Amino acid sequence: MTALSALLVRDMRLAIRVGGGALMGVLFFLIVVTLVPFAVGPDLVQLRRIGPAILWIGALLASLLTLDRLLAADHEDGSLDLILMGGTPLELSLLAKAIAHWITTGLPLVIATPLLGLLLNLEPLAIGAVALTLLAGTPALTCMGLIGAALSVALRRGGLLLPVLLLPLTVPVLIFGVAASNAAVAGPMSFGAPFMILCALALGSLVLGPLAAAAALRNGLE
Amino acid sequence: MALIDLANPTRFLTLTERVLPWLAAATALAFAVGLYLVWAVAPDDYQQGATVKIMFIHVPNAWLAMGVWSVMSIASIGTLVWRHPLADVAAKSAAPLGAAFTFLALLTGSLWGRPMWGTYWVWDARLTSVLVLFLMYLGVIALWRTVDDPARAGRAAAILTLVGAINLPIIKFSVDWWNTLHQPASVLRVGGPAIHSSILTPLLVMALAFGLLFVTLHLAAMRNEILRRRVRAMWLMQAHAAQGA
């Protein structure tokens, strides 16, 4: 347990002190949301209608963008090899790393959502719904992303391969995240059902992500 | 003969060399019978006219689009659990075939949709989940292409394939939930098929023909892959020898 908490604290400290990760993700999120009105026009009614979708797409892309640092930096300086050889199960170490990564990159996106929601003319209820769905959905994205990060480290290939492999897998999270946000505002169905499924997806990927990522790392770095 | 006997690539090559001509002939025969049934026996639909014939190409391709991913998943388990030497060869050579069948299912569906629904593409649940499946096939192929060491790429692709196999039903379910317009399943369902036998028989024969086509092409592609790896090994040996001299 101490090893895991030490790893968690170390990763968070690195992310905060070295910089780049957390704020860069939020900045990217802000830029994506700023770009959309240039493309679809400044009509406030329309922006309010598609606002939750824009926020979700922006958060999805922003959390993908930060993924390549999740394991690559540790791989470069050799600490990933230490984690691999250590006594702690690799799955749990990777889960700790994913949690640290989510706290430093996923959570800031959730916190930035209300502000960006104001830019898109969302009502308070819609802003709350989007922030809540992102709070439940971004852990799923991080855990899915862990698989992609492990594959790209094991294969020593980065770039576009990671999003190409990952984005199709994020379709369910996107569908239920946006559906729950829209249901909270417009109806006709309830917010609860899609939100519950979103939470289920997050919990499922919390299990599947570390397992698959550990398998990928063991196979790739042996 | 056990599956493990096929682990020897040389034995696999000699066996498939004998089997392949028969398989190819069976495929051709099944297509001949199937196409005859489609054009001579199956009636035109009273609403759709002759365009209903597209179904006999579309439905087998859609079945194979999903079936090939199952073949790849079983092969991936073979790679990860038993380190079967031919499993990753099977997975690798199945991926482009699966992508091709999926593309054909999308293409024929789109051509069929134009006269029926008045548009080439609608964002309906089934079309969309098949499109996502197509993207995942392309992702697996991209993974194979970017890594030059076959063994390393094989295990990575196996993990991705299995993650995909777990996710595909979830994607299917979520896209269904998202939107539904397509005709619901009408062959495999409780209470027997809802299709008249004059259409069902040609459909099943065509499905058999496409299935045989897949097996034939898959075995041929596996042979090519084994030979390609041998050529690669010979090149590497030559390069080493040249370096040493």
Task: Walk me through the structure.
The complex is a heterodimer of chains A (222) and B (245). Chain A is 85% helix and 0% strand. Chain A has 222 residues and is an all-alpha fold. Chain A starts with a helix and ends with a helix. The model of chain A has no long low-confidence stretch (mean pLDDT 86). Chain B is built from six helices and no strands. Chain B has 245 residues and is mainly alpha-helical. Helix content of chain B is 78%, strand content 0%. Classes of the chains: A mainly alpha (222), B mainly alpha (245). The interface between A and B is medium-sized, with 25 and 28 residues.
Give a quick rundown of the structure:
Chain A has 222 residues and is an all-alpha fold.
What order do the helices and strands come in, and which of them pair?
The complex is a heterodimer of chains A (222) and B (245).
Chain A: H1 2-18, H2 21-40, H3 44-65, H4 68-77, H5 79-85, H6 90-119, H7 124-155, H8 161-166, H9 171-186, H10 192-220
Helix pairs in contact in A: 1-6, 2-3, 2-6, 3-6, 3-7, 3-9, 4-7, 6-7, 6-10, 7-9, 7-10, 9-10
Chain B: H1 9-41, H2 55-82, H3 87-117, H4 125-146, H5 150-178, H6 197-244
Helix pairs in contact in B: 1-6, 2-3, 2-4, 2-5, 2-6, 3-4, 3-5, 3-6, 4-5
